[in-house]
Amino acid sequence: MTGQPVRRLGIMLFPGVEELDAIGPWEVLSYWTREFPEDGWETFCFSADGAPVTCAKGLTVVPHHATADMPPLDALLHPGGQGTRPLLADDGHLDWLRGLRRTVPLMTSVCTGSLVLAAAGLLAGRPATTHWGSLDRLAQLDPTIEVRPDDRFVDDGDVVTSAGVSAGIDLAVHLVGRLATPERARQVSRGIQYEPR
């Protein structure tokens, strides 16, 4: 370790989350933080109540924390999936995201997680993307969003969104390169043998 405080990236879990939206980035980010602790980052998963979460296709995942007891975040990853649909109208969840925005330097989303960020007003006036089947919905939620239908992910500084499902892996590799170094991203990609051609 460098002697600097550990920075933390949390992956949000919720009922109906798309498995690969969360587990794909988890594979990349947890490999990075476990194999290269000297970079000073930690990755964990959390849910609203800390209870096991049943994902969209039936996989059950046990989070590390509940929102009430998790350590402070330096980055949030909000996945998508069918479970985002109720969250779009969940005032408590949207208010929680707005509160996080005030203290968390980096907000990211995979797939339809960007719809939830949009519903919370966090993508106003920004470029963003989502799953190809939800691009129109993203534009409807906030017409000020510059929807980018052809981008695998969109990095707008303190907010990064990705396209659907497997694009979360590309987002996570990008985050390693950004939060550590491009060489580290290459090492992580090699380590998990993620080398698309």
From TrEMBL:
InterPro entries: Class_I_gatase-like, DJ-1/PfpI, INH-QAR. PANTHER family: ARAC-FAMILY TRANSCRIPTIONAL REGULATOR (PTHR43130), HTH-TYPE TRANSCRIPTIONAL REGULATOR RV1931C (PTHR43130:SF3). Pfam families: DJ-1_PfpI. Residues 10-176 form the DJ-1/PfpI domain. This is DJ-1/PfpI family protein. SUPFAM superfamilies: Class I glutamine amidotransferase-like (SSF52317). It comes from Rugosimonospora acidiphila.
